[in-house]
Amino acid sequence: MGKLIRFFLDNTHLNHILLVFLIISGVYAYIKIPKELFPDMALNKIVISGSYPGASANNLDKMAVRDIEDDVSAVSGVGKIESVITPGRFSVIITLDEDAHEIDVLNRVKDAIANIGRNLPADMNMPVARSLVKMRYFIKLSVSSEKLDFDELLEQAKDIRSRLLKVAHISQVDIYGDSDKKVEIKLDALALRAYHLNPSDVISVIKNLSYTFPIGDIDDEKQFVFVSTVNGKETVEEWENSLLKIGDRSIYLKDIATVSIHHPHDRTMASFNGQKSITLSVYKDMEGDLIVMANEMYDRIDHFNKLYEKVDIAIFQDGSKPVKNRLNIIISSLTLGLILIFFTMYYLINRNIAIVVSIGIPFAFIIGLLFIYFMGYSLNLISLVGALLVVGLAVDDAVIVSENIQRHIDEGMDAYEAAFTGTKEVFLPILLATATTMAAFLPMFMMTGEMGLFIKLIPVVVIMVLLGSLVESFLFLPLHAKEILKRESPSLDWSWMTNRYEKILHKLLHYKKTTLIVFFVGVPLLTFAVLKMLSFQFFPTFDTDKIYITGKLKINTRLQQSYDIAHKIELDILKRKKELSVKTVSTLSGKRKSLGQDWETASNMFYLTIELEDRTEQNFVEKYINPVLNLSFDFNDPRKVRSLSSFEIADRLRSLIEPYRSRYDFMEFAVMERKIGMIKTDIELNLIGTDSQKIEKAVKKIEARLHENPYVNEIVDNIRYGKMEYKIRINGYGEELGLTEGYVASILSGYFLGGRKAMTFDDDGVVEITTEFKEKDRLSRLLNFDVPLGDGRFVALNDVAEFIIMQDYEKIEKDNGYIVKTVSANVDKTRTTSGQVFDGLKETLDTIGNSGIDIKIGGEKEKNQQLKDDMIQAVVVAMFLMLILLLLIFPKIKYALMILSVIPASIVGALIGHLLMGMNIGMTSIIGMLGLAGVVINDGIIMLDFLHGTHDTKSFYRRAKQRLRPIVITTVTTFIGLSTLMFFATGQAKIMQPLSISLGFGLLWGTIINLLYLPTLYAFVNRISPEKKSEVDIQNFAKAAEV
Q1: How far apart are CA 486 and CA 417, in angstroms?
Q2: What is the pTM of this model?
């Protein structure tokens, strides 16, 4: 290493050129690296989807889903299988094992589906398996017009969608409020009866009115010719004048049906800020830079508004906005931390060392950024918080090297040799100290599932920046130190502090047994006492810029009715727009996200998204310092007008929509606030058993218990009965007439099973031809149906068949093949936690569990258990890694164990920090405590490395005092580096606030331990006895005697 250090000291120009190259590369990497709010947290998944119109959920489960689950579960690499079955459609979501090869598993799943296909109904489409494409929400566009009718507006919206899909990194554009163009033929049952026509025969003839397939080709000697049809008719008049030949009768279509060509509202309807519109929801791939794409999108929409003169296109719910805001705040906090560290070193050490260290820190981060860029990671809230956490740690290496070089310069060595010797001397200790910090963060890679994907950027950034700090401290910093550091630079006089420290040590050594007993008994008791005063909350709550209202009406509500109700709520919110600080309101009917955070599609649903104005600054750092550091100098941003928190606005919205609850028949109706993706609901209980009635009673019992808690809200279950089902059984009289179940079903399906019968084309592409009977949706039509017997006679259906009336569940949800009934709820985390709610449920759950019902706990508690299991592994691995590294420094295991004993003792500092800051312990708190282990033992290594080998009191005091300054400085700089996140976190950055509290306050307490407990323990183990008076007292006495 000495040769490398000298090489970079000798080659000054190379050193400077490399630094310039690093700066340019860092700027390039920052521009090119994708920027987003959160890292990718989605596990690899495969989705199997299938449909069979008219089939109930129960029948679909029997005919398709069960076989799919059984065959797929045997495929290697398949982890969890979740199924959702609704009338007419189903989806099976397969979560793969983390080490599974996605393409291989997908191919084997497709093979399994092919094997099942032979058992499916002949007219059912084969289920389709596909990999779940990872993409991110980008932006929404509202397309509206006062000059165009709906069909014209829709065509314009589809053209805009086509243009957007050609843009780089845009992966998907969903249209809400649209529908496919259809030729809709509505048959008149009375007319068919009058003409003695069988509906099956009529529909069969209609199917042949359009033929879209090629007929063939002719390779004539003179020319090559393709042969095809005109693909049906073009206008309503042409369709209605189609002459149908049915048996021996010819009849015009208009005599038995009406025809329309239009875009029916049969899927979704949308509005924006009270105006009916078509909404385009745009998604991006995982590579695109959200901020760059947003800037380009605004320019593109300006162009579109000029291109489509009769259409108004507006951007809302811009996904890049929170990313820009959070990145600006974190980067400003990072810059502020560096500035504070500079002034701290300027005061605690001297100006020149402060300059040398401050020059080096940015280069350490640039090196770290380059590592992250080339490893394919993004720049997001988590990676930047990781950088904020490590800023203080990155300073430590530079401070130690600079101080050692300054010491040699002060002792008379020339600057060149001082830079070389001072750097070489501390290389091994710094390398090992940095390695122990890395060892504490490395086991975080062992965390599994979505949680592991969420948190892994923390160790990545910490380790990469620490590696950058090592490179900078040993290759570039020596040259800076040679050029900047001077002999006898004025610095702070630490003698008063070292003398006071020696007196304290003298007292502790005098009562070292008592001190250690108090410590070994008091610290665990204090830890336990503080722990009892805190609760566990997986993630802290944070203010957000969006609130949602989800609604689900009674099962037979039509799409237009759902839209009308949602639109009224939208207009009511817009009337209080200023009071509630509402920026935009968008409404979607026909689709919604449930309280369980699952997307559902049905006519009886709606979903409102309320986008809030920017919130006013919450502290002086946001108001006065960040505008300077991000160079905006905007101290009174006019866009920041919201004074209420999103929680307060959500409460007001709940009061606003309450009258609607009694006015309409809602199955589910609630205000929802944003959650982190990995936790869908705070409380989730999944019940599995064979007795459905017993399970239903158990669900009601749990819900009743939850309702007793005033801080629990949004309590829902998936026990919802769907549409009534009339099963037809042919009776004896019907069988005597020759009627069979198949024949009657084919006749009835012609009337009641509407849908696509054929296809045609127009200028824009494929158009469906659908048939439906005018009176299809009247139950009386079924009950009084006349069945043709084939000889011209008819017989009443209720004479030849009996009706078995059933009502099945609206939706069937399954987990690994078992039907699951779920109770979910959310809690007011400002007043209670999920753990406290579960404590109140324990007796009820025990009773239910003893009755033969299996209870699987999900939600936050499930993640808590996963976190506990992962952390036990991580802690064990981290401790062994650090023990191995410590044994490289201290061959005797007793010294390694002495340093390791600092780790559990420092935890109480992290807990006290949470108590002082009024925060619960969370997932990131525990991650911070794991990282704390690697940080706090660095000071322990510094202390014990100097004490090692001392056996007399004078040497003991002298060496302990020599370590006071570096330990205090590294602690202060690290704490200051974390201070902006600890004390001034806002928005989503609050997720990482507990992590910084664990590190910051834990390090403060750990410093006290390293300065007092560790020397006392060393003295006890090595039998170092104190003098009657400390060295300082003796010196003071001698001075007084001279006077």
Answers
A1: 13
A2: 0.79
